[in-house]
């Protein structure tokens, strides 16, 4: 992933970030890393200890908006001794835009300005108010044409709000990331370096489909059906939504195979509300050529037995943040 500034940035001064979103501070090697997820309906706090190749989930909690979430989060940081710990924050999908654009044929030092010029008309606010970062889309093995990349754009004022919240907790901000890449981290940790795998993630307010190989993100799609939509439907309406989700998965698999020419994706992991996940998994597994399974962190992350599965489901992006390595 590119950074728009070659030098480490101060996270306290947003104007000094040179409009780079995924900024990283140099820090001493730490075994404990914190992930904080910002959600439209709450906050999640996770800490993962990584020692000698072993990962242990030390803390995992979700704080719902309307129940003094920020106050509870502050108390949790103090009670768990996390002040001064390195934190990677994850933005919710509705807070940023993710574009796929043609890579400009310019020198590296000119890349930032070229990308900003290219996307300025895609925003509903002025480009000077935007913070952005970019990362590569893998090269297709089947199609010729221009190299493509992803561009992430978020309002500068919103980034400042997140920075202020984290610093008020006494956490050391090392990076701000997006949900798609945080989930990529989880898949990379559970799937190893070889083979493609897909993920269908359905939290309450949105839906995502991703395809990764190792730590490389090949495809991401935001879909209209969310976990809340599934839970609220019954009877024919539910069956219609389940069928739609299977169709979205099939379209994603077909696009990946035709676009990159790297063969079929063998496995799909599903993360959905407890009340619907078994029905969704069974239908998708019956309908698709890929093996469809319920996502399971067992064997890759210790300490899961102390966490409510419903909480784990909501905290997955924060877990991915806590697993990030630079």
Q: What is the top-level CATH class of the domain at 187-299?
A: Alpha Beta
CATH superfamily of the domain at 187-299: ATPase, nucleotide binding domain
Largest sheet: 5 strands, mixed
Mean pLDDT: 86
> How many runs of DSSP E, i.e. beta strands?
13
The CATH topology of the domain at 187-299 turns out to be: Nucleotidyltransferase, domain 5
**Overall radius of gyration:** 20 Å
Distance, first to last CA? 10 Å
Shape: globular
Strand content: 25-35%
Task: Give the uncertain stretches in residue-range form.
Answer: 1-20
Trace the largest sheet across and list its strands: 3-2-1-4-8
Order of helices and strands: EEEHEEHEEHEHEEEHHEHEHH
* Number of continuous helical runs: 9
* CATH architecture assignment of the domain at 187-299: 2-Layer Sandwich
Summed up:
31% of the residues lie in helices and 29% in strands.
Describe the structure.
By secondary structure, this protein is an alpha/beta fold. The protein has a domain at 187-299: Nucleotidyltransferase, domain 5, CATH 3.30.420. It is 31% helix and 29% strand. It contains nine helices and 13 strands. The chain has helices spanning 69-79, 111-119, 156-168, 179-191, 227-232, 235-260, 277-287, 309-314, 316-322; strands at 32-39, 42-51, 54-64, 86-91, 97-102, 130-136, 148-155, 172-178, 196-201, 207-213, 216-223, 267-271, 291-294. The strands form three sheets. Strands 3-2-1-4-8 form a five-stranded mixed β-sheet. A five-stranded mixed β-sheet has the order 11-10-9-12-13, sandwiched between helices. A three-stranded antiparallel β-sheet has the order 5-7-6. Helix 4 (179-191) packs across helix 9 and helix 6 (235-260) packs across helix 7 (277-287). The longest helix is centred in the C-terminal third of the chain and has 26 residues, at 235-260. The protein is globular. The termini are close together.
